[in-house]
Design brief:
Protein FAM107B isoform X1, mainly alpha, FAM107, coiled coil
Length: 160
């Protein structure tokens, strides 16, 4: 029985050293065409067919634009309008929630500083409006204001 195992192992193609080399040699699956070996002028050599879609100018422009958009990271929008609107609403809602959470997390000092900042901005706006009104006012109104101021200054000077 031991002899039959060694006999069987020797008959195996994987154990035969002559056959091992034939399995290691890569074989070509496709046969080489005849027209490469022979320079026979009578043979018609195959040529690649021209695809009319790919040669069209519109297709080339579209393909170039798609490649550029892909490099930039812009994907073509194939979503329906309703889906786009719903996604925008959802994004806006998430942003609004984040802002509210950030507002809640602010300390009392930050809230007070924001209030003061808003008051200062309102005062600046009022000053700008007054300046614009004075600039747009007629000349006699400006003169009358100057006379009042000088009259008040004179009265204060006499009192002191």
């Amino acid at each position: 029985m031991v002899g039959s195992l060694t006999q069987h192992a020797q008959d195996s193609p994987f154990e035969d050293p002559d056959l091992k080399d034939t399995y290691l040699i890569p074989r070509n699956i496709m046969a080489e065409p005849d027209y490469i070996e022979d320079d026979n002028p009578e043979l018609i050599r195959p040529q690649k067919l021209v695809n009319p879609v790919k040669t069209s100018r519109n297709h080339q422009d579209l393909h170039r634009e798609l490649l550029m958009n892909q490099k930039r990271g812009l994907a073509p929008q194939n979503k329906p309008e309703l889906q786009k609107v719903m996604e925008k609403r959802k994004r806006d809602q998430v942003i609004k929630q984040k802002e509210e959470e950030a507002q809640k997390k602010k300390s009392d000092l930050e809230i007070e500083l924001l209030k003061r900042q808003q008051k200062l901005e309102q005062l600046e706006l009022e000053k700008q409006k007054l300046q614009e009104e004075q600039e747009n006012a007629p000349e006699f109104v400006k003169v009358k204001g100057n006379l009042r101021r000088t009259g008040q200054e004179v009265a204060q000077a006499q009192e002191s």
